[in-house]
Amino acid sequence: MHRFRSALRQAVFILVLSAAVAFTVNALRPGGLPVLQAKESVVQVSDANGTIALKDALVLSMSGRALFLDARSDWEYGNGHIQNALPFSPDEFDYALELYRPRLDKAQNLIAYCDGALCELSTKLADKLRSAGYANVYVLENGWTLWNNEGLPTEQGPAPTE
């Protein structure tokens, strides 16, 4: 019995040591394999207009897989907007599209928002973006109020000049 326990202890020790060495080498090796992978999140779109829920918009935002577009006025944008959002007025669509084209990708997730349950600027912007060939366009209804009330990341200041 004593030999069995001794052999078992040695086997466990060798196994733990081997795993530690393997993880260390993998971590130090350029192009090492990921040990843990985040499960790809599925975004739920609630209707044909591409409305997205706040929780889904947040998932895309936190994973760096979305760009927010603020459809409100420049004044409203300057007083507060979702962090890293671009001001993108549907009434000045051609100008904004030309200005921000280098930052837009036809395949990326674009989330348009404005403020107030009755605000239609984000829907108008989303329609124009889809017509311009952008496929993954979502509308976060009452976006600014929802985002701000949840205490999610915001910032103030004028539009980027890029």
Automatic annotation (TrEMBL):
UniProt domain Rhodanese: residue ranges: 62-156
InterPro entries per record: Rhodanese-like_dom, Rhodanese-like_dom_sf
Domain of life of the organism encoding this protein: Bacteria
Gene3D superfamilies, per database record: Rhodanese-like domain
Recorded coiled-coil stretches: none
Name of the protein described by the UniProt record: Rhodanese
